[in-house]
Amino acid sequence: MKRQFLAALGATALLAAVAGCGSGGSAAQKAPSAAPDPKTMTGTVTVWLMNEAQTTWPELVQQVNDQFAAKYPKVELRLSYQNWTDKIANLDSAIKVGSAPDVVELGNTETMKYILSGALAPVERSSFDNSDSWIKGLADTCTYQDKLYCVPYYAGARVGIYNSQLFQDATGSAEVPKTEDELFSALDRIQAKNKGNSGFSALYLPGPYWYAAMSYVAAYGGAIARFDSGGVWHGTLGDPKSQQGIQHFVDLVKKYNRGDWKVNELNQANVLGHGKAAMLYGNGWEVSVAVAPITGDPKLKDTVKLAGMPGPNGKPLPSFIGGSDLAVTSRSTAPALAADWIRMFTSTKSQQVLVNKDTLPNNLTQLGPLRTKPETAAAANAVPDAWFIPMAPGWGAVEKQNILVTMLTDILKGKSVEDATKAADAQIDQLINNPS
């Protein structure tokens, strides 16, 4: 991250114009100008971070801001914290009126919209720490047509979240089995043990939960869509491997979800926390919801645990890669300074602050120790082989129209997997190649 900063500032040698009159003229070259002194540089850098940075690692923010101020004492740094609920609206409005921040944090599913609209400036990958070992699924969210438009910040993955006491009572073990067949056997015993608990689901797997469904698609080698040699995206849910994964997911919903199949996953942690489920597939942070007052039960604090989710064919279930990225906006008046702030904020030293807080870093090197730590092993081991949504121009429209949710709902209502996936592919093909 510290490498080649002056080159990143664009302080290349300035060559004099070739001067000459007539055939006898000669060229003269001026000496290169001196690189700018960071101590004398002036300007303003505006940074938008999500509020997690303020509440979870404020010391990292302070550390980097102090480092930036020491290097650029005459540059003003303006920091603003954003909420996920209104960040996109705020950013779109700021871009429209010409007041976009210099640096913005984006959820990794948000990057494509701004890359395609020209709102993000390309950056040089090799100038950032650990870029040769960035988690591929995260780096891919910043990459389009072989150019890098943002920098991975931190990663996330979905895991099994379970009530260890319910597993202990029904199976004699408080641990989640390592294979899917063994897990199904345990879930069957848990379901039987809790048959008197109305609406209890041994595995609470919501029907419209397309992130989970696509994990099973990935497990069988399928995909939502693929990019062909002609440069065109096509829906591939109707491919046999994708259909196999979708059928697997639907079978699990029908067997284990004793609630309303039409309800999505937004409040699934509440179901676990209120004793109506033994296990779910979700984000690690959902544990805090399950053990909080009102949304869950604080008495479950030491009972609700994380585990890798067993998948088909004796392998872990592939997870969707979550996380955040940091980008320089294309209309920044100080792009080099903005890029250097990101270098500092994603440096090896900075990433270690996240690691110390059990947050998954942006690179495999620093991820290593978390893969054996009990508190983080499940998520850390799910990250290297994680999948991501198609980085296609029209993906936003596909998601906005709930094509995958509708497909899953139709199947659970009785439509065949073959018919539903082919219908979804047809809709995807109409949208996915057009900027949304």
Short description:
By secondary structure, the protein is α/β, with parallel strands linked by helices.
Structural features:
single chain; 436 residues; alpha/beta; D-Maltodextrin-Binding Protein, domain 2; 2 domains; 8-stranded mixed sheet; two-stranded antiparallel sheet; 19 helices; 38% helix
Helix content: 25-40%
Structural class: alpha/beta
Q: Roughly how many Å is the radius of gyration?
A: 25 Å
Number of helices: 19
**CATH level-4 homologous superfamily of the largest domain:** Periplasmic binding protein-like II
CATH level 1 name of the largest domain: Alpha Beta
| Structure summary, number of beta strands | 12
Low-confidence segments, given as residue ranges, are: 1-32
What characterizes the major β-sheet?
8 strands, mixed
The proportion of residues in beta strands is 15-25%
Shape: globular
How many domains would you count in the coordinates?
Answer: 2
Give the CATH topology of the largest domain: D-Maltodextrin-Binding Protein, domain 2
What is the CATH architecture annotation of the largest domain? Answer: 3-Layer(aba) Sandwich
Mean pLDDT: 91
End-to-end Cα distance: 34 Å
Describe the model.
The protein is of the alpha/beta class and 436 residues long. It has helices at residues 5-8, 51-56, 58-71, 87-97, 111-116, 136-140, 164-171, 180-193, 210-219, 240-256, 268-273, 286-290, 335-345, 348-356, 364-367, 377-382, 395-400, 403-412, 417-431; strands at residues 43-50, 75-82, 103-107, 143-144, 147-148, 151-163, 201-204, 225-227, 233-235, 277-283, 304-307, 321-328. The strands form 3 sheets. Strands 1, 2, 3, 6, 7, 10, 11 and 12 form an 8-stranded mixed sheet that branches. Strand 8 and strand 9 (233-235) form a beta hairpin. The longest helix is centred in the middle third of the chain and has 17 residues, at 240-256. The two termini are 34 Å apart. The model is unreliable at 1-32 (pLDDT under 50).
